Amino acid sequence: MAKYPKINYIGNKEKLASWIISNMPIKRGTVIDLFGGGNSVAYELKKKGFTVITNDCLYSSFVISKAIIENSKELLEDKVFDTQIAKREILEKYNSISKTLTNVLYYDYEVMELAKLLLIAESLTGGQKYLFLALIRRAMIRKLPYSRMNVPWNQIQKLRNEDYSYKKYGRKRAYHNQTFESLMRADLESYNESVFDNNKVNLSFHMDSFAFIKDLKTKADVIYLDPPYPKTMNKYNDFYGIFDNLFNQEIKFTNLSKNNEFLNNFLLLVKACAEKTDYIVISLNNKTSPSINELKNSLDMYGKIKIVQKEHQYKVTNKENKNTTIEQLLILKTKK
In what helix (H) or strand (E) does residue 61 lie, and over which residues does it extend? Predict the structure, then answer.
């Protein structure tokens, strides 16, 4: 049985995915996940036999989707790490990425290793390429404290000191100091095992959410929305955007997470989605702003609304959050 691999994505809905899919207003058909993120919901949809279309404005999320949602059969062999790359090419790649990474996120020798891995990725195609890129992404994040790319270098150095980490947290976190390749090899089997064919044509896109909906030519059965809400850990471009920069894949996108602009932009997005689907399913919880009641009052004009909810505890840095969150779904049946 295919299993969703370890992704490391802040706000991931992995533990909620089955509940979300069980409350989908349809049992078969096409679902668009407009803010794919870590792709845990899209993966569960794929397992349940839906045709899945994912989108995200971050290339770091797009490569995950291409690897385990769109890809249905291609796997990676560990011999890929033995690909021969000329030293001159590695040095050139190193020089092109060093300013972004050296003594910013990683040590000099680590950036040199990463340069070779990026060149191996360039030699690959199709599902193999995106599996390799998804593994690079995972390894880059694993080597960083707090699993994000906006930690200051002085903090990275401190927290990668295993004695300091043990004294402060009771764990040495030795994986921060493993090579990129060793981390990738450790995850290779689980990423291969996550690849499966659900006999549907599943697709992945890397676009601004508004641009994606505007370009959508055929109607979907459901559009699922889990946007970056204000007042949450929503700085995904800061958390993972350096990955996009490495591949020159940064795109302009509507920043929904701005507190004073969110509701207006989100309502405009829902309005655009309502013309392209029978149902809109929105994920939020009792700690997000705007609240579910504010959204309900604003969205009544677009159709009939149903709300379902459940208690859930999020886990951050291996500690359970003692404050229970009420996870919510707003299900909008759009007017014909």
Answer: helix 59-65
